[in-house]
Design a protein that fits this description.
Radius of gyration: 17 Å
Oligomer: single chain
Distance between the termini: 43 Å
Number of helices: 3
Order of helices and strands: HHH
């Protein structure tokens, strides 16, 4: 999946959760957390492969945050894209609700 697909599926999940719960912030946080967790897990595997001799037991707690395993822009974009897209939707819904109650 690429950035656009990640953002699309995050927005789709946000729509489903937001319509059911009416909490658009939580609805955005859930898929954003999923994509962040997915990228951190992939970073852990890269760390284990490159520095841990293939053993998870060799990885320190901070292994997924080691900048040496975050080498390409798409690794950041794959979680920043969904976070940005879902935040925009939550802000738009929140702003729309606030402007509707002022009138």
């Amino acid at each position: 999946m690429n950035l656009i697909e990640h953002a699309f599926f995050a927005l789709l999940a946000q729509l489903a959760i937001g319509l059911a719960s009416r909490n658009w912030w939580a609805a955005g946080a859930i898929p954003s957390a999923y994509f962040l967790g997915r990228e951190l897990t992939q970073a852990e595997y890269r760390w284990i492969e490159h520095f841990g001799h293939g053993l998870r037991a060799n990885m320190p707690w901070w292994g997924a945050f080691d900048p040496r395993v975050w080498t390409t822009a798409d690794q950041f974009a794959d979680w920043i894209g969904p976070l940005f897209a879902t935040t925009l939707v939550a802000l738009a819904v929140h702003g729309h609700r606030r402007s509707g109650t002022r009138a």
